Amino acid sequence: DTGVSQDPRHKITKRGQNVTFRCDPISEHNRLYWYRQTLGQGPEFLTYFQNEAQLEKSRLLSDRFSAERPKGSFSTLEIQRTEQGDSAMYLCASSPWDRLGEQYFGPGTRLTVT
Amino acid sequence: TQLLEQSPQFLSIQEGENLTVYCNSSSVFSSLQWYRQEPGEGPVLLVTVVTGGEVKKLKRLTFQFGDARKDSSLHITAAQPGDTGLYLCAGEETSGSRLTFGEGTQLTVNP
């Protein structure tokens, strides 16, 4: 049984560049979540999907952020025109249909914007 | 947005000591999760509690959900250096929706 995987694990980019992260959830999970975590803080919710439908977006998800889950399996999170304030750990989680509160997290993608 | 307050924020103890971490909110959660996170890694789910007053044990860890489902505690008996890490509580506002996390308790267990 493979857990949630994320790619890449680390990304260093220059301000103004676009970046895209990928998340592969646990295969039988139909809910997929994105969170962001900065140093010394707990994760903050960004958005979540049920299958391919994006059901909720946080106010943290500005116009420069977009997330997709086109076939209800893997998801991508894109940040356009990155800013230094976007530097953070981006975490993906998935949950089973019958225990929705049990969210299982991937290892995260550490983004550094220089 | 419901807020979760964790205390203490930092805890440094000697191996063999007992400790308790608290997670409090003024709002009711449909479930509450405890996670442990190591540097550079994602949070690892330890337990989910759903019913008010529920107590769950995981080896030396005991988790309790308050009767009103607003607060929770994590008690570790005879702490070991391997217990070192960031402990996070997270509340589920409504079933299947976002988790709201506390700021975490950084535990260090010294040998």
Q: What does the model show?
A:
The complex is a heterodimer of chains A (114) and B (111). Chain A is mostly beta strands. Helix content of chain A is 0%, strand content 49%. The radius of gyration of chain A is 13 Å and the shape is globular. By secondary structure, chain B is an all-beta fold. In chain B, strands 2, 4, 5, 9, 10 and 11 form a six-stranded mixed beta sheet that branches. Chain B is globular, with a radius of gyration of 13 Å. At the A-B interface, strand 4, strand 5, strand 9 and strand 10 of A face strand 4, strand 5, strand 9 and strand 10 of B.
Question: How would you briefly describe this protein structure?
Answer:
The complex is a heterodimer of chains A (114) and B (111). Chain A has 114 residues and is mostly beta strands.
What brief labels describe this structure?
heterodimer, A: 114 residues, mainly beta, seven-stranded mixed β-sheet, four-stranded antiparallel β-sheet, 11 strands, 49% strand, B: 111 residues, six-stranded mixed β-sheet, five-stranded antiparallel β-sheet, 0% helix, globular
How would the blueprint of this fold be written?
The complex is a heterodimer of chains A (114) and B (111).
Chain A lengths: L4 E3 L2 E4 L5 E6 L6 E7 L6 E7 L2 E5 L7 E4 L6 E5 L8 E8 L8 E2 L3 E5 L1
Parallel strand pairs in A: 2-11
Antiparallel strand pairs in A: 1-3, 3-8, 4-5, 4-9, 5-6, 7-8, 9-10, 9-11
Chain B lengths: L4 E3 L2 E5 L4 E6 L6 E7 L6 E6 L5 E4 L2 E5 L5 E6 L8 E8 L6 E3 L3 E6 L1
Parallel strand pairs in B: 2-11
Antiparallel strand pairs in B: 1-3, 3-8, 4-5, 4-9, 6-7, 7-8, 9-10, 9-11
